[in-house]
Amino acid sequence: MFRKGGRIFGPEPRDYSIKLNKKVKFVAKASALSDKVLNNNVVIVEDFTFDSPKTKEYISVLKNLGVESSKVIHFISDLDKNLYLSSRNLPNANIEKVIDMNTYEIIKANKVVFSESSIAKLKELYKF
Question: Is the pTM of this model over 0.85?
Fold first, then answer.
């Protein structure tokens, strides 16, 4: 049929993704967070912001919290541009909104930092 032959049932692209129920995702997040709390790896801070994006200021905040040498994920309620720009140059620091929280990021981080407003947003989202 074809010059030099051909494959009758050749490979086709497949979708390997699976669907997880909302309740299963919630239990996974709750389990990961409870593990961090039990191991004293959660820090809650007051809401703060910077006047201008300065990485040195964010490093000093991490040093004051005692988490500068470990991988940190910082959850905030709403995106603060100066805070995000201050931290994006640091390889061990990550800032996320509470709405975008996922289990993998929680497990990957050594320390989890919450702002006070993010705790309120977390209670509102998951009805604690």
Answer: no
